[in-house]
TrEMBL record:
It holds the Pfam family Tnp_DNA_bind. PANTHER family: TRANSPOSASE, TRANSPOSASE TN5 DIMERISATION DOMAIN-CONTAINING PROTEIN. Residues 21-79 form the Transposase Tn5-like N-terminal domain. It comes from the Bacteria. InterPro entries: RNaseH-like_sf, TN5-like_N_sf, Tn5_transposase, Tn5p-like, Transposase_Tn5-like_C, Transposase_Tn5-like_N. This is Transposase. It comes from Skermanella stibiiresistens SB22.
């Protein structure tokens, strides 16, 4: 069994009830809402929104009574996004405990933008240039919206185990980094007074939640290149792998990291698959260089933070390609890299960071979170928290098909659902013993969503999976109602 995959017994022992909607009970088992009726309404809402992914709340709820109850739930001051996600966080913890090998905890921030007549009820994310007026002066436009910073736990094979932390916020005013630099050196501002503190808060929360800090590697893009984060990871006994963008002081303070790395010889070559601007797939060779060295904090913070011994890893193409950007990755980690194979392993782990971008895409393109019509930030946040559960489930179904295709279909589907799928998408050959694997039935679901399953086709993606699951839910409901209408 490869590291990062859930073993068959682990999957079955992990809290994952069978059936297309039974998973909701697992994700809510750790929720403690103020009222039992709120708990029942939350479950109903998740079931409705999961069965009508991408549709509006009225369409998902079907009638005025359920729609009004949904609006009341989102307006209820006794419910918070933390209450909604608490059960999911606990289920993620159990799935992490059941998995084997290292766990990658990927952090990233995404923005949700909205069009509103009263944007002040939601807040703003950023000010952007919206073009020139008739006199040639640039106009600035304030984007209405809110932000979410999430930590997604995945195996090294890319199987999403769930969220470990999520922070939502919005701004009443926004000043960019350029404006800040005109008044003060940002490196001298304490991290506690910056929005960047969210990276440290999520690292601390997920480390405490999973309870096995040495096993977790916290992965982030260049925005997470924060010295305070490195120090906190060392303090908590956990690990990090970050794409660096800051050329820090190194060794004794009389040189920098980039200058030191310029002297490091190429220690290996690695072939990676790339796409050019026209979408053509090709292969590129990147040269690997890595070194362990002492890295120093910013000058203004050297009294507060110690120097750290870190590993810097560079992966770079020798020449600039004509039809795409040059590959140039600079990573920093507290993990040792002593061989080309270890360097390639860290590159592959960082490449898994893209999984959180896919999760955000499901939230926005699948659930259509930015098309929600709720009028205030607190209500939108509760809706997006529910969408996080639905999006994770779709993502998990897509990736479990690739990570552990040979486990039994009963982990996800009831016997009734398997019978319906066999009827709608019959097997080309007679059933053989052991042929009821999860892969077979997930492909059948994908076919309901428009997947052609030709030999040259890649594995089914998130879009066909969520369309197929929505159809399966409707068909299963119809099969349960039909006998009552026409008799057995």
């Amino acid at each position: 069994m490869a590291h990062g995959l859930l073993a068959l017994n682990d999957v079955q022992e992990a809290p994952m009830a069978t059936g297309s909607n039974a998973w909701i009970d697992d994700e809510l088992s750790g929720c403690r809402l103020a009222d039992e009726r709120l708990g029942r309404r939350l479950r109903t809402l998740i079931e409705q929104l999961a069965g009508a992914m991408g549709d509006s709340i009225p369409l998902a709820c079907q009638d005025w009574a359920n729609t009004k109850a949904a609006y009341r739930f989102f307006a209820n001051d006794r419910v918070s996004e933390g209450d909604i996600l608490a059960g999911h966080f606990d289920s993620t913890r159990r799935r992490v405990a059941a998995a084997t090998g290292p766990i990658l905890v990927i952090q990233d921030t995404t923005e949700f933008s909205f069009q509103r007549e009263h944007p002040e009820k939601i807040g703003q994310t950023v000010r952007v240039n919206s073009g020139q007026d008739k006199d040639g002066r640039f106009r600035m436009h304030t984007v209405c919206g809110l932000l979410m910073h999430a930590s997604l736990a995945v195996t090294t094979e890319g199987l999403p185990l769930g969220l470990g932390a999520a922070k939502f916020w919005t701004r009443t005013k926004f000043k960019g980094t350029a404006a800040l630099k005109r008044k003060i050196n940002p490196t001298r501002v304490p991290i506690e007074k910056k929005e960047s503190i969210r990276w440290l808060e999520n690292l601390r929360r997920t480390t405490e939640l999973f309870g096995d800090p040495g096993r977790c590697i916290h992965v982030g893009d260049r925005e997470s290149d924060i010295y305070e984060l490195f120090c906190l990871a060392q303090e908590l006994g956990t690990h990090f792998l970050v794409r660096t963008c800051v050329d820090r002081l190194a060794l004794g303070g009389d040189t920098t990291v980039d200058r030191v790395m310029e002297e490091v010889a190429v220690q290996g070559v690695h072939a990676v698959e790339v796409r050019d601007r026209e979408g053509h797939v090709g292969t590129a060779e990147v040269e690997l260089s890595y070194r362990s060295l002492r890295v120093l904090p910013p000058v203004g913070k050297q009294k507060r933070y110690p120097g750290l011994t870190l590993t810097v890893l560079h992966a770079q193409e020798r020449e600039e390609p004509a039809n795409r950007p040059r590959i140039d990755w600079k990573l920093v980690t507290d993990l040792p890299v002593l061989s080309p194979d270890a360097a390639i392993e860290k590159l592959r782990w960082y490449a898994v960071r893209w999984k959180i971008e896919v999760f955000h895409k499901i939230l926005k393109s699948g659930c259509k979170a930015e098309e929600a019509r709720l009028r205030s930030a607190d209500r939108l946040v509760k809706l997006i928290a529910i969408y996080c559960l639905v999006s994770w489930r779709v993502f998990w179904l897509t990736m479990i098909n690739r990570s552990a295709p040979d486990i039994g279909a009963g982990v996800v589907f009831t016997n009734r659902e398997q019978e319906i799928l066999d009827f709608l998408v019959p097997n080309k050959a007679p059933n053989l013993p052991g042929s009821n694997t999860l892969e077979i039935y997930l492909v059948k679901v994908a076919k309901l969503g428009g997947y052609l399953a030709r030999r040259c086709d890649p594995p089914p993606g998130n879009m066909v999976m969520w369309r197929g699951m929505a159809r399966l839910i409707d068909i299963t409901l119809g099969s349960e109602i039909a006998p009552q209408l026409v008799g057995n």
